[in-house]
Fold this sequence. Notes:
The chain is built from 12 helices and 42 strands. The protein is an alpha/beta fold. The strands form 5 sheets. It has a 13-stranded parallel β-sheet. Strands 5-9-13-17-21-25-29-33-37-39-41 form an 11-stranded parallel β-sheet. An 8-stranded parallel β-sheet has the order 6-10-14-18-22-26-30-34, with no helix packed on it. Helix 7 (386-398) packs antiparallel against helix 8, helix 10 crosses helix 11 and helix 10 (442-460) runs antiparallel to helix 12 (504-532). 42% of the residues are buried.
Amino acid sequence: MAEASGGAPPQGWTPVEQRMWQAFREGRTCDLRTGHADRDDPPPWLRMGVPPTGPEWGAERTVRAQAVAELLLDGPAAVPGRVTALKLAGVRITGRLMLAGGTVTPYVQLDDCRFDDPLMLQECRIGSMRMVRCRMPRIDAARVQVSGDLHLPQCLVTGGVRLADAQIGTDLLLNQITVLRGSAGRAFAADGLTVGQDVDAELIDVTGEFSLRSARIGGRLSLRGATLRNPGGRQALNAARIAVEHTLYLSGGWNAMAAGSGSAPPPEDVTVREFTCHGGLRLDDGRFGNAVIISRARFLLDGDQQVSLRRIQTPELCFTVPRAPDGVVVLSGARVGKLTDARGAWPSAGRLRMTGFGYDNLTPLAEFPLRDRLAWLQAATPEFRPEPYERLAAALRAAGEDAAAREVLLARQRRRRETLTPAGRVWGWLQDITVGYGYRPGRAAVWMAVLWALGAAYFALHHSPPAADAGGYRPHWSPALYALDLLLPVIDLGQDNAWRESGLAQWVASLLTLLGWMLATTAAAGASRLLRRGS
């Protein structure tokens, strides 16, 4: 731009472009907006949910993409005492803005602008770029490098956004952006994206797949109040292998600017929009440094679509959706420190999979009765597996709920009994009704007392048996002591071996001895479990 060095705009530029050129040198905004209609907050596509229609802007508001590219890639020097910057408002940009492979040094701020053709930023180096309430057919910014922020709030992109392998130095702001699907069914393709700090994508509306596979985010990823829909596709949000250093929010959101406060919770008079995912959600193998918050969320799943959290790792998982997802929720192989959930958040039997799911602590959002927690486990294990029961028992013991932990382990034995042979089921049933598989050792004492009373009554109704040694010591016959001596193993009260039973009485004595050994053994096993706080 030889003319630029002499302080005059390039020849052949239109009056509007010359005005833009001068504003660039002075670092001020070239504002071509004509009234409040250009400053709608939110813009029409956010208020109506559809792309705007109407007459295109005329020449008095139009600049060529080539002129914009010349300013950004090889612009004139700044007016003394000022810093160059491209600040446009209410401008229509015609032609394809080609910045691919270039280096953009000036600050870029575009408000309420329209692009006739896609914005091409592949492998471009930029300081910071902010585009607010802009409308464009597509953004192709694969492998772009932004040392500062990239802001796209309240924009409308009708043909998708591509940020694959992009590098953002600080924040990526996408709040209230509206994106329609592009090629291959994807609306927002950001696989391999790297962001130094936060990604805020609150209240966004995306039609098509929102893909963040293998993304690396140094702060939080907030999708509060987002609406993601991928009709006819498999995933609405595909964030497999993502790494988020802080927290992932899939929860309700509200317009904090309209509310006049960015604090949480929202003011009472502000409408909170649920996070809505119409299509599958995939976070497989994700790593989250602080928490995954899934609350005030709605999942609409079709066919084989899933809410898949396979093998995620996070210190906390909050799953407190008001209504269980229609499809399958998968937690297989996930590792969670604290699990916060709600009774009605989980799907029914056959639609919850938790093979290998591990957690250390349970903190239900509200009352979660043990019977419902056991039903939760049974829904997750159509075929019996002991591990989910053992993990639940361990979490309950860690919270000091030993009695509840024993109930869980007793339920595990009862589920296991269903897989045994008929003989094994009979034996298990006997152990259950007598001592609760050793988890209710107090039953052994009750059965001991009942058998002792029955045995004493039986032997009291019969004559005393003959002595085992006719010429030796013969103790006084006591039906109660005799029945007790038969029941108590190891301990000798001097009655058992002193008398010789025959006929039916001999069978009764043998049965009491056998039952006594069984009750004593199971009671001892239960007592040892109590002492060890074990399984």
